[in-house]
Amino acid sequence: MAENTGNLLPVYMVADESFSMNDYIDNLNDGLAQLHDALLGEPMAAAKVRFTILGFSDDVQLRLAMADLRRENKLPQLVARSRTAYGKVFEDLRARIPSDVASLKGQGYTVHRPAVFFLSDGQPTDGDGWRATRDQLVDQNVTRAAPNIIACGIGDVKPQTMLDVATKPEYAFVSTGADLGAEIAKFCAALTKSIVKSGRTIGSGQPELVVERPQNFKMAIDVV
Amino acid sequence: MIEAFRQAYQWFFNGDPPPAQPKDPHERFVPANGGVYQSRNAAAGPPPQRQAPPQGAPPQAALPRTAPPEEPPPRERDPWDPPVVGRPVGTFAPRPSTAAAYRPDYVADGWATPRFVVRAASVRGYSHRNTGEPRQDDVAVAWHEPTGAVLFAVADGVSDAPLSHIGATSACRAAIGAMTAGLDGGDGRVDWDGLLRGAAWQLCEQARLSLGLPEIDREAAERHMATTLVAGLVRPGPDGPMVELVQVGDSSAWILNTRVPRYQCLTPTKFRVGDEVFTNAVVALPRVPAVEVRHGTMSRDEVLLVGTDGFGDPLGDGDNLVGDHFSDALRTVPPVLKFANDLDFSRETWDDDRTLFALWPYGIRG
C-alpha cells in the first residue's frame, strides 16, 4: 500500500436528458444546485464524496467529473436533448467506473463501492440491448468495482424497468405524483440526504450506502 | 518530525488557503505554499461559500452544519492543537455527546512497571464530535503484579448499535477481569475462549440492565451494544516479553520496530492488497467466532500497538504519512497527554474514533 490518502465514495448522478424532460430540466438543475448548497454545509461528508454528473439521451454527456463539491463554484447545467438510450449510459459506466476507481486508488485513496443514482422519465428507446451491458456493469466478476444502482422513475417509466435497472429491489423507486417538476425536486432532496448520510459513514467502522426514498415515491416492487 | 508537520501545515493554523495536492502521491509532505485543491473543473481560488437561498425559494430541510455561519477569526497555532497529517479535517467546535451517561472525548492513561512502560488513549472521532455522538471506543489496562504481566483490552462499539459505547466498556472490563482471574488461578493460564464467552455474556447482561429487559436477549444485545474486542497480555519471559492476544472484529495489533521503522500486523485487518473496492463485514461481540490465540515475543527495539480501526485504517501498512507520524511519535515513550494528542491527529476523511494501547518492553526509572 502506498499513501493512505483518505476514504472516498464515488457517486454518479445519471440524468435523463431526453426531450420529454424539457419542461422539467430547470427543476433538475435547481435541485442539483440545492444539493451542492447542502453539501457545502456538510464539508466533512462532502470531503468523502466524488460527484459525477452524466446526462444521457442519444449519447452520454459528461457534465461533471469526480468533483469534490466543496471546491466547485457552480454545478453545470443539464440540457434536454433527444431520445432515451439506456444502453449508452451503461456502456459509458462500464468504461468510466473502473477507470475512475483506478485513478482514485492511484492517488492513494481507499475507494468504497460506487453508487449510481439513475433518474429517467421514460422507457428506453433503444430496445433491450442495454440489459446485457447493465448486467455486465453490476456483475462483480466482470466489473470488480461494480456499482450499486439506485433507479428512480418518473412520468412514463414502468416500475419493472426501474427494477431491472436497480441492483436491489429496494433501490428501485417510482413517483406517484403527476407534477414531475415537484417529483424531481423530491428526488434531488433524497439524493442529497443519501449522499450526506453515506458520506458520514464513510471512514467509520461500518461504512454503508444509505439510500433515502424520495418523498411520495414508492418502491417499484410495491407497484409492479 | 512532528515539528516538521507543524511547520509544513502552518498555513492551516494561519487560516490561509490550502496548498496544492502533491503531484507525486508518494511525496511525503505537502508543500507549504502555492496552488489550490485539484478538481477537474474547479476554478482556482478559495472554496465557494454556502449561499442563502433566494427570497421566495421553498424552505429546505434543516441539515446539521459543520461550522456556524460566522467563522471565528484565525488564531495562532497552539502546541496542543492536534497534529496535522496531510490535509486536515476542517475546524469546528465539537458538539456535546448525546450519551445519557457521561462519556468524555479523551481518555488517557500511562504508567510503568519494573519491566514495561504503558500508554493508552481513546479519543472521540471528528465525525462523532461533529454529529454529537459519543465516543464508541474504549480501552482498559491493568498490571498483574504477581506475574509482572500487563493486561490490555481495546474495543470498538459498532456504529449501528446505539449503546455500543456501553458495550465497548463492558467488554473491556470483562476481558481484564477474565485475564486477572486466569493469572490468579492455579496454572496461571488464561482461558481465552472463556474470556470471549464471558465478555459476550457481560455484554448481554449489561444490555438486559440498560434496556430493562426481563431476561437476557442476545439479539437485543447485538442490536444495541455490539462491539469488537482485542484482549491480551504481555508478560516477562526468558526470551523476551511474551505477547498473547485474541481478536473479535476489526480492531487489531501491530509490532512497530522503532529501529527500521516498520509495522508488522499481528492480526487480520480490513485492508487486503488487491481489493478493488473497500469492503467491510464486522464480526462483533456478543457473537463469538472460533478463537485463534496469537503468540509472539518482542525485542527491545519493538513497541506493541493495539488499536481500533480508527487507528488501523489510516495506518494501513504503515508505509505512509500516518505510519511516519506514529513511528516518530512512538520512537521513545512520550508523555501521556502527548500520546493522546498524537492519536488525535487531523487527516481529512479519517474521522473515526481512535483507541491505541502501546507497550514498550523496558522499564523507566524515576
From TrEMBL, chain A:
What protein am I looking at?
A: VWFA domain-containing protein
> Superkingdom of this entry's organism?
Bacteria
> Which SUPFAM superfamilies does this UniProt record tie to the protein?
vWA-like
Instruction: List the Gene3D superfamilies hit by this protein, alphabetically.
Output: von Willebrand factor, type A domain
UniProtKB/TrEMBL annotation, chain B:
* Residue ranges constituting the PPM-type phosphatase domain according to the UniProt record: 124-321
The region called Disordered is annotated at 13-97
Instruction: Spell out the Pro residues composition-biased ranges.
Output: 45-57
At the top level, the lineage of the source is: Bacteria
UniProt name for this protein: Protein phosphatase 2C-like protein
Lineage, please? Bacteria, Bacillati, Actinomycetota, Actinomycetes, Micromonosporales
